[in-house]
Specification:
Blueprint (H helix, E strand, L loop, with lengths): L6 H13 L18 E3 L1 E2 L13 H4 L8 E4 L10 E7 L3 E9 L22 E7 L7 E6 L5 E7 L4 E3 L7 E7 L2 E9 L11 E11 L4 E4 L16 E6 L7 E14 L6 E18 L2 E7 L39 E2 L11 E2 L17 E11 L2 E10 L2 E2 L5 E2 L3 E11 L3 E10 L8 E12 L3 E11 L8 E10 L3 E10 L9 E2 L9 E10 L8 E14 L5 E14 L4 E13 L3 E2 L5 E2 L2 E14 L5 E12 L2 E13 L4 E14 L2 E15 L4 E10 L4 E13 L2 E12 L5 E12 L2 E2 L1
Parallel strand pairs: 1-14, 2-4
Antiparallel strand pairs: 3-13, 4-5, 5-11, 6-7, 6-12, 7-8, 8-9, 10-11, 12-13, 12-14, 15-16, 15-45, 15-46, 16-17, 17-20, 18-19, 19-30, 20-21, 21-24, 22-23, 24-25, 25-26, 26-27, 27-28, 28-29, 29-31, 31-32, 32-33, 33-34, 34-37, 35-36, 37-38, 38-39, 39-40, 40-41, 41-42, 42-43, 43-44, 44-45
């Protein structure tokens, strides 16, 4: 059967010459997306001293920009506090000087010392650089008044944001009586860019004044646009004679020991290892080749605890460094429509399938390579990895496997692309050999209308028909209105062994999913109210034979207050058809049959700019042939700039005709930062569904940008019947990179 999802790709190509003809103009000012703002970088005869003060004479040579406008609370109004930005450069670095005036500097919010925290508690300044000037992708750099750093890469104007990307750059800040100032230095070796001279980049700036709940932007202050939409950015001019690095080598050394207790037997291992975390070679300034040999993929971070009351798989994101470079290029699939649900519906490639078993045990790798970047209008990605044969702590044997991914995306028109992906993996003890090929496309019409889709086919031994999957989606997203229509089909024998399918389970019959969402988001002139939202959605999900399995209707209302607090209410009506009994992890079984049930939930989220904030929610309603009551509380306590507490607790009471039980999930973090270089974190995880709790302690010393010393201790235990140690490990790891 030919999937109906293919219509979107046909529509995109047919409509391209007509509807989007206006987008064929040159990058600068095309489609009226940019307001023509520009800032000129000035070549510095000598680099400024990085001390957070713009007192050197060289800064006076750069003409500042200061015409920032509010997005909130008053769209288009001048910023209540003045912000000035200057840019310098030399052959190897770009320097950004910022002065953020503040009429009440004693109220500047500056509490976070941990790198890559989102700074939602603090004042902040961020910039985004569109170094290819393609109006699609960018590098995001953010600081708070303490100089704490956050960085990320943005793909397809924010459709994908990789917050796990970390690179070498530095910042210094200074809080004064008149506000706060900052100096940021970004090495050109951190960035990929076109090999042109002179060169023009896209750039935008954003400042948040937390105590006023005010956000101001240099370009694209319109509420319909997000900061990540670099097509709305201004222009950075004046760069010439800049140079990227050629080669980077980053070896590692690790030592430690571990104990595991599979099947009642204790297995103790001691290991000391050296290897190549990554060797990076720039073939061109925009095309990078990464190599790794005997990499250490031991996790310095732990996965969050998750309660699973559904029939489907949990999803855990990728955190390992080697996979971060160019990760957005490899995105292919359909995300879940609920913002709170991190599970994608379908991903053709999920890098956590490499080097980790199904139950998340590490599988050693011989090594691999990755090629990512841009060549003309094409974005390219190639990855090949080889694992070693390994005896796992669980008693299973993992044979050596080879994984290959090839990805190409052609950027066309102003803000659109068409792409293709191929994946291949050899067989393992639990997975057959597998090939998958797919085509995808995304077209952005006018300002807020996006149309996208994909079509893909897998090939696995012993399976013939029914190996197709496809999706089509049309979406309008603006500050006042939002709607989307999506159709996803997955045939029953579609097997992306290197990817992820949320609802896949043994003996399933495929998927036909239709989703419609609409929302109206007015900004009424009511005291204390910033914006309200009224939303409705319907989801219809059947198997490939057309038998309805799930129908979900949701109605929601939320209010954002000028104070920064938010209140949400949601009511849902659900139909579920179980074709076989559903055993719930934690207790009880739901018999096969048809079920109708309703649920209501109310949530309060406190403004993050306070010393004490967080969220609280209560839900109550049906759960198949029983009831469920749920409570979630997630306070956030910023005791000092050094010490913070982030406990999170979820409690569910399930009442079924044959069982009544509760589930509890506790995820508590205690963070103490001696400085921005010495960071400690203690995490306690508890999940009653697995009768399991875990402790993780991590000391991270960032002895220079991009290089770390980690001391990590993990321990997992079970409680109740058969309680005892499950595993423990002490890991010491150090990396040291050399650039040439």
């Amino acid at each position: 059967m030919f999937l109906r999802s293919t219509w979107i790709i046909v529509l995109a190509f047919v409509g391209a010459d007509g509807v989007l003809a206006q987008d064929r103009r040159p990058p600068q000012g095309r489609s009226g997306l940019q307001d023509g703002r520009s800032i000129r970088a000035v070549r510095a005869a000598e680099p400024p001293v990085l001390d957070g003060l713009l007192t050197e004479a060289v800064w006076a040579q750069a003409e500042p920009v200061s015409d920032f406008l509010q997005k909130d609370p008053q769209e288009g109004a001048p910023a209540s506090e003045k912000t000035e930005v200057r840019i310098l450069f030399d052959t190897q670095h770009i320097y950004v000087g910022i002065f953020c005036s503040d009429s009440n500097s004693s109220e500047i919010r500056a509490t976070e010392l941990r790198r890559d925290n989102d700074f939602q508690n603090d004042d902040l300044f961020e910039l985004i650089l569109d170094t290819f000037h393609d109006h699609r992708d960018g590098y995001l750099f953010r600081i708070n008044p303490l100089g704490t750093q956050y960085d990320a890469t943005v793909t397809n104007e924010g459709q994908t944001t990789n917050t796990n990307w970390d690179e070498k750059w530095d910042a210094r800040t200074r809080i004064t009586e008149g506000g706060w100032s900052a100096e940021i230095v970004i090495p050109f070796k951190t960035l990929r860019f076109l090999d042109e001279d002179p060169i023009v980049w896209g750039v935008n700036f954003h400042r948040a004044i937390k105590r006023k709940n005010e956000d101001v932007f240099w370009a694209a202050h319109n509420r319909d646009f997000r900061f990540a939409e670099v097509s709305r950015a201004g222009h950075l001019e004046g760069l010439e004679g800049i140079r990227a690095f050629t080669f980077r080598v980053k070896p590692f050394f690790t030592t430690g020991g571990s104990q595991a207790v599979p099947d009642g037997r204790t297995v103790t291992r001691h290991s000391t290892d050296v290897g190549l975390e990554v060797a990076k070679y720039l073939i061109t300034p925009q095309l990078a080749l990464d190599l790794t040999a005997n990499p250490d993929f031991a996790q310095a971070d732990v996965d969050d605890a998750q309660v699973n009351l559904s029939r489907f798989s949990l999803f855990f994101p990728e955190r390992r460094e080697f996979f971060q470079e160019g990760s957005g290029i490899f995105q292919f699939g359909s995300r879940n429509r609920q913002a709170w649900d991190s599970r994608p519906q379908l991903l053709l490639f999920h890098s956590r399938r490499i080097g980790l078993s199904d139950n998340r045990e590490e599988i050693p790798l011989w090594g691999g390579l990755k090629l990512t970047g841009k060549q003309g209008p094409l974005e390219l990605g190639l990855l090949n990895m080889q694992t070693r044969r390994s005896d796992l702590a669980s008693g299973q044997t993992a044979p050596g496997q080879n994984f290959t991914v090839l990805r190409a995306k052609g950027n066309i028109l102003a803000r659109s692309y068409v792409g293709a992906m191929l994946t291949r993996n050899t067989a393992s003890s639990t997975r057959p050999s597998n090939h998958v090929a797919g085509l995808d496309a995304s077209f952005t019409f006018v300002r807020n209308l996006n149309v996208q889709g994909f079509l893909t086919k897998s090939s696995s031994p012993g399976l013939d028909a029914g190996q197709w999957a496809g999706m089509s989606k049309v979406e309008w997203d603006s500050d006042r209105f939002q709607f989307s229509l999506e159709r996803l089909e997955i045939q029953e024998n579609f097997r992306p062994e290197m990817g992820f399918v949320s609802r896949a389970q043994p003996n399933w019959k495929g998927l036909q999913q239709s989703v419609g969402v609409a929302a109206y988001k007015p900004r009424p002139r009511l005291p204390g109210v910033r914006q309200m939202e009224f939303s409705a959605s319907v989801e219809h999900l059947a198997n490939q034979q057309g038998l309805l399995e799930t129908r979900d209707r949701e109605f929601g209302w939320s209010t954002d207050f000028q104070s920064g607090d938010t209140v949400d209410f949601e009511y849902s009506q659900t139909f579920e058809r179980l074709l076989r009994p559903f055993p719930i992890r934690g207790g009880g079984t739901v018999p096969a049959g048809d079920y109708w049930f309703n649920e209501s939930e109310i949530q309060y989220r406190a403004f993050r700019g306070r010393q004490f904030s967080g969220s609280f929610s209560v839900s109550r309603g049906g759960f198949y042939n029983g009831t469920r009551t749920g409570v979630e509380i997630s306070p956030q306590i910023k005791a000092t700039r050094n010490l913070s507490f982030e406990p999170s607790y979820e409690w569910n009471k399930i009442s079924l005709p044959d069982a009544s039980f509760t589930t509890q999930q506790l995820n508590t973090q205690v963070n103490y930062s001696f400085s921005q270089k010495w960071l400690t974190r203690a995490t306690f995880l508890l999940n009653s569904q697995d009768n399991q709790y875990a402790v993780n302690f991590r000391l991270n010393y960032i002895f220079r940008p991009g290089d770390d010393l980690f001391i990590v201790y993990n321990e997992t235990r079970t409680y109740g019947s058969g309680s005892g140690l499950q595993d423990r490990a002490l890991i010491v790891k150090v990396t040291y990179s050399l650039d040439y």
